[in-house]
Amino acid sequence: MKDAPHDIEDLEIDDRIYDLYDKYCHGFMSRRDFLKKAGAITVAGVSGLTMAQALFPNYAEAQTISFTDERIKANYVEYPSPGGNSGDMRGYLVQPTSTGPHPAVLVVHENRGLNPYIEDVARRLATQGFLALAPDGLHPAGGYPGNDDDGRALQKSLDRTKLMIDMLNSARFVQNHELSSGKLGSVGFCFGGGVVNFLATKMGDDLKAGVPFYGSAPPAEAVADITGSLMIQAAEKDDRINAQWPDFEAALQANNVDHERHLYPSTGHGFHNNSTKRYNEEAADLAWARTLAFFTSKLT
Question: Predicted confidence band at 13 (pLDDT cuts at 50, 70, 90)?
Answer without folding.
Answer: confident
